[in-house]
Design goal:
Blueprint lengths: L5 E13 L7 E10 L2 E7 H7 E8 L4 E5 L1 E6 L17 H14 L3 H17 L2 E6 L6 H9 L4 E4 L14 H18 L8 E3 L2 E4 L5 H14 L3 E5 L4 H10 L3 H8 L6 E5 L5 H10 L2 E4 L1 H7 L3 H4 L2 H7 L2 E4 L12 H16 L7 H15 L17 E5 L11 H8 L5 E6 L2 E5 L2 E2 L4 H18 L12
Parallel strand pairs: 1-4, 1-5, 6-7, 7-8, 8-9, 10-11, 11-12, 12-13, 13-14
Antiparallel strand pairs: 1-2, 2-3, 5-15, 15-16, 16-17, 17-18
EC number: 3.8.1.8
GO molecular function: atrazine chlorohydrolase activity; hydrolase activity, acting on carbon-nitrogen (but not peptide) bonds
Pfam family, one: Amidohydro_1
């Protein structure tokens, strides 16, 4: 008796497949089959074709490379996408944040946040990102959730959360109570239970903006509900200096004392650490999100002061993010992976650091783990979610092809993404969204960006005359 064939909705055959499975199989002539939202078979084309009876077949002969969808673990999806590139590149970290970015965030309407979120989602999807973790600067979570639901992307996001009293007349107790109430309300409205594409987390702004009480409440909520927590931390020496001054301990050590570290937590940037902090991160299972393009544009000192090779050697889960567009970044994770593969090789004069293989793990498996989705996305294997990308080989950067991983990291970028599936649904086909009216969105983004900058009374500087 022969086994009954596996029923599938889609079979892609005769393609290069970079699986990221436990053995890291790469198939030169591979096939992948999906049924509903799950992968049901992956392997050599001849084997999978014998096993699967599919409703639709795509022949990838000499055309496609298939990878898992990328996971962007730190991106600002409101504000910055619709004011992209207006911040000059000679601003330091504090000036960039407080004098350029925050005024434009505060000038947005909920409708403009929606436009920005759709634009960010479109850019991510069209460059191969299928899942993201938002950076914690959304003002109207309901409006943004509504907009993102139309795009087909997977994400974990949250409303702007901070509570520290900085002005003398601030009511600290009320600020903390209000922040915790917002955090709990969003979790009740958009829980992670039930396998949703979109759900909320405690997304703390971080740095020195959260009190110990807010950190404890976010940590407790994450552990009780199975979410993650994300926060900016130690992008600048100001963060460890603040915590040393106010608590006697550096930032990561203080979070450890609070019980806030752990596998639920992702800290973004984490440039200014000492050896104890690296050890605490590794021992606790805390993830670190490296945003290499932001570090370069903002002069953060990641290569001069950062301990990313030491963190990797210690076993810290390093994942990648593209951060904000006004930090000079496209939301293209392939660009972030390329930069990550090169920065520390050059800075340390050590070509063994962050190979293309390790960097692809950061952009897929490590990101999935940090997004608390490591059991369902990040790899192409039976039972995993059908989140995957077809890279078009009919382009000069993909010819000839000998090593798909090297090619992916060092030669290609998101402009070669042909098609994308999220949760078994084709959301990009032949370089365009299947769900978003791109022409309409681009016009809306142009108008929204102009309006935000005008309301915020922000200049658009240029060293050269723009006539």
């Amino acid at each position: 008796m022969t086994d009954a064939p596996i029923s599938a909705d889609l079979l892609i055959k005769h393609a290069w497949i970079v699986t990221m499975d436990a053995q890291r199989h790469v198939y030169r002539d591979g096939a992948i089959a999906i049924a509903a939202d799950r992968i049901v078979a992956v392997g050599p084309s001849a084997e999978v074709e014998r096993q699967v009876l599919a409703k639709e077949i795509i022949d990838g002969t000499d055309r496609f490379v298939v990878t898992p969808g990328f996971v962007n673990c730190h991106i600002h999806i409101t504000g910055e996408p619709i004011t992209r590139g207006y911040v000059p590149d000679n601003t330091d970290w504090r000036t960039n944040v407080f004098e350029w970015l925050i005024p434009t965030y505060m000038a947005q309407t909920p409708e403009q946040e929606q436009i920005s979120a759709r634009l960010a989602a479109l850019e991510m999807l069209r460059t191969g990102t299928t899942c993201f973790v938002e950076a914690g600067t959304i003002l109207n979570i309901d409006a943004v959730m509504e907009a993102l639901a139309e795009t087909g992307i997977r994400g974990r996001l949250g409303q702007w959360l901070q509570d520290r009293a900085f002005a003398p007349d601030d009511d600290q107790a009320k600020l903390t109570a209000d922040a915790i109430a917002r955090m709990e309300a969003q979790q009740a409205a958009y829980p992670v239970s039930g396998d949703p594409l979109l759900a909320t987390w405690p997304c703390l702004v971080g740095h020195n903006t959260a009190t110990d009480d807010l950190w404890r409440a976010a940590t407790d909520l994450a552990r009780e509900s199975g979410t993650g927590v994300t926060a900016h931390m130690s992008a600048d020496p100001a963060d460890p200096e603040f915590y040393l001054e106010t608590t006697g301990r550096r930032a990561i050590a203080h979070l450890a004392d609070l019980g806030a570290l752990g596998p639920h937590l992702s800290l973004t940037h984490a440039v200014y650490l000492d050896e104890e902090e690296v050890s605490l991160l590794a021992e606790s299972g805390t993830s670190v999100t490296h945003c290499p393009m932001t570090a370069m544009k903002g002069g953060y000192g990641a290569t001069a002061a950062g301990s990313f090779p030491e963190m990797a050697a210690a076993g810290v889960n390093i994942q990648l993010g593209t951060d904000g567009n006004n930090n000079g970044n496209a939301a293209d994770m392939m660009r972030a992976m390329f930069v990550t593969a090169g920065l520390f090789k050059d800075a340390r004069r050590d070509t063994s650091l962050f190979s293309s293989y390790r960097v692809l793990e950061m952009g897929t498996l490590n990101g999935a783990r940090g997004a608390q989705l490591g059991e369902t996305i990040g790899a192409l294997a039976p039972g995993m979610k059908a989140d995957f990308v077809l890279h078009d080989r009919d382009r000069p950067e993909w010819r000839p092809l000998f090593n798909a991983v090297n090619q992916l990291i060092y030669s290609a970028d998101g402009r070669g993404v042909h098609s994308v599936w999220v949760d078994g649904r084709r959301v990009v086909d032949n370089y365009h969204s299947t769900l978003i009216d791109e022409e309409k969105l681009f016009a809306e983004a142009e108008a929204a960006g102009k309006d935000v900058l005008e309301k915020a009374n922000m200049p658009i500087p240029s060293e050269w005359p723009v006539i």
